[in-house]
Amino acid sequence: MQYDYSKNRDEHPEPIKADVNGLIPEWLQGMLIRNGPGLFSLGETRYNHWFDGMALLHSFTIKKGEVTYRSKYLQGDTYNSNMQANRIVVSEMGTMAYPDPCKNIFSKVITFLSHTIPDFTDNCANNIIKYGNDYHATSETNYIRKIDPMTLETQEKVDYLKYLPVNIVASHTHYDKEGNSYSMGTCIAEKGKTKYTLFKVPGGSGSDGSPPLKSAEVVCTVPCRSLLTPSYYHSFGMTDNYFVFIEQPLKLDVLKMATAYLRGVSWASCMKFHPEDSTLIHLIDRKTKKEVGIKFYTGAMAVYHQVNAFEDDGHVVFDVICYDDNSLYEMFYLDKLKEQMGADTMYCKPKCKRFVLPLSDMVCYVVHNLVKLKYTTASAVKEKEGKVLCQGEVLCDGVELPRINYNFNGKKYRYSYMCCVDISPVATKIVKFDAETKQKIEWTGGDCFASEPVFIPRPDAVDEDDGVVLTCIINAKPVQGGFLLVLDGKSFKEVSRACIDVDFHMDMHGYFIPDMAQVSCISISSTGLAPFPRLSASPLSSHTHIAPCRPGEKETEG
Fold first, then answer.
1. What is the mean pLDDT of residues 287-304?
2. What family does this belong to (predicted)?
3. What's the rounded Cα separation, in Å, for the pair 196 and 186?
4. Rounded to 5 degrees, what are φ and ψ at 258?
5. Which of 54, 481, 537, 558 has a CB 3.0–4.6 Å from the CB of 493, allowing a cystine?
6. Exposure of 344 by Cβ count < 10 A (0-12 exposed, 13-18 middle, 19+ buried)?
7. How far apart are CA 445 and CA 449, in angstroms?
8. How far apart are CA 515 and CA 453, in angstroms?
9. What average pLDDT does this structure show over 418-445?
10. Measured between alpha carbons, how far is 383 from 367 in angstroms, rounded to an integer?
């Protein structure tokens, strides 16, 4: 079973009605928008890395038990320039674009200068985020693109640098109950300093027609431990009172990036993992807007995704997906993906680790574990020089792209929903993981590839896992089309699937926009509604499997 990562996908801008098998709960109404690369070759030129492909947005609109689908390429400056030239003319992280050999020397000089002080791409192919009332496609450059969520039309180009001193911005954003958004970016060598900037965009910003980022506020800054080699990061954690930022030894060499074009290498080649360095864990107090005085660190690791973070009895607990090195990025070069199909390759399997940061008993040097929580084996030991060495507990392994019930973001939680990548980084099944019992429940559909699972809570639900999980499933046999899978959040059994006669592309991340009118209606009259029925698995070609516990653990019903 193979997925062709390098195949160009067609867009379907007009809505397509899905064939729904099973019953979609009537409270589930809204739109799931997802983002990922979909076009990898133009004319005689090809992208080197899967992450570099042109952004292809697609959406599933759920209304009154029916589903409609559409997809559209993000038509930013990068897309338009490439299409007009019928070749790749704008560089991406893993693919350096060189001028047409037929161009004159003046054009070649201009191209060289633009890469020495690069104006990055607006090919925002990683995620969908919300600032104020606006939705944006995003990657990790200083550019994002506003989109119309209903039509997927590309709208204004937004430059972070017009509002904030950030050259690179993380793909993942946090939100609080007031609708405020929180993001992190890196400011490189401004006034001789490189720093990480955490900023807030107030909820409702942009309601007067102005860009929401115009109202952005810097919450705090964290100095980089090295001026010209800032840490790469993809996400960060947030609790009620703290932000958690991991400064990992996966670093960008700024000087090498400035000369990459001249040396004939990609910007990605300037990103290097340093196993000899430690991983710094920065804890920022949301009230004082400053780092706490305790210096936490752990061994070298590469982290892309945070699962959740929360506070418990004088500790900050945070769960992350981590790797021993940066081989994951290397595996997604398109040539390597072709080689891996059906072959036994060395794969650095990710681990879901729990770290615990104690906030008390820090007066003097101690050699015993400062973590007092009984439910974890994670440890923290204060060393003579005052730093605290943290060792994480492995909760499970072979999982990626974690999502939770976001109502529990920053709070003590139990369940996460992830892609199962225990054999390769290509997911063929998804899992529900119970952090309390360490039990996994798996869903697999045979010859299918699964995308990031997204949990949608039932309105007015009490239980953490009361809701549904949505995931986009790619059929390994494209002639059969793909489908939007709906799973019951508790049993992890299939409730329904919306089949679309489209060859889906593999995407990365997405955002669910609820139909607020419907949510308000259900919320107001919820006492008169029958609870969402726990449907048994529908008679479709899929099954749910309760994975065995690890050796020495009891098997517990989830």
1. 95
2. Belongs to the carotenoid oxygenase family.
3. 5
4. -65, -25
5. 537
6. exposed
7. 8
8. 20
9. 92
10. 7
Angle (nearest 5°) at CA 321 between 318 and 324: 120
Enter the DSSP assignment of 114: H
**Beta strand pairing call for 296-298 and 388-391:** parallel
Q: Which two tokens stand for residue 502?
A: 């489209």
Q: How far apart are CA 279 and CA 285, in angstroms?
A: 20
Contact (Cβ atoms closer than 8 angstroms) between residue 271 and residue 265: no
Beta bridge partners of 499: 19, 483
- Tell me the C-alpha distance between 49 and 413, whole Å: 36
Cβ partners under 8 Å of residue 179, min gap 6 = 202, 203, 204
- 305 labelled as ligand-binding? yes
pLDDT at 97 over 70: yes
Other C-beta atoms closer than 10 Å to the C-beta of 133 total 12
Q: In the structure encoding, which two tokens stand for residue 224, read together?
A: 């980089």
Share of the chain above pLDDT 70, in %: 85
Q: What is the pLDDT of residue 536?
A: 35
Q: Name which of 230, 203, 229, 231 is nearest 217 in CA terms.
A: 203
DSSP state of 8: P
Tokens of 422: 């225990």
Helix (H) or strand (E) holding 519: helix 516-524
Residue 59 pLDDT? 98
Q: What is the mean pLDDT of the chain?
A: 87
Structure tokens at 108: 């070649």
Range 233-237 average pLDDT: 97
Confirm or deny that 505 is annotated as ligand binding.
no
Q: Report the distance separating Cα 330 and Cα 346, nearest Å.
A: 12
Element (H, E) at 483: strand 482-488
Note the pLDDT of residue 345: 61
CB neighbourhood size of 377 (10 A):
13
- What residues form DSSP beta bridges with 318? 309, 355
Asked if the model's pLDDT at residue 205 lies above 60, the reply is yes
pLDDT digits (tens, 9 = 90+) for 474-483: 988 766 789 9
Residue 136 labeled ligand binder: no
**Confidence at 218, pLDDT banded by 50, 70, 90:** very high
Rounded-to-10 torsion of CA 526, 491, 556, 463: -20
Radius of gyration of the chain (CA): 23
pLDDT tens digits, 337-362? 887 655 556 678 999 999 999 998 66
Question: CB burial class (10 A; 0-12, 13-18, 19+) of residue 384?
Answer: exposed
3-state DSSP assignment of residue 106: helix
> Is residue 422 very low, low, confident or very high in pLDDT (cuts 50, 70, 90)?
confident
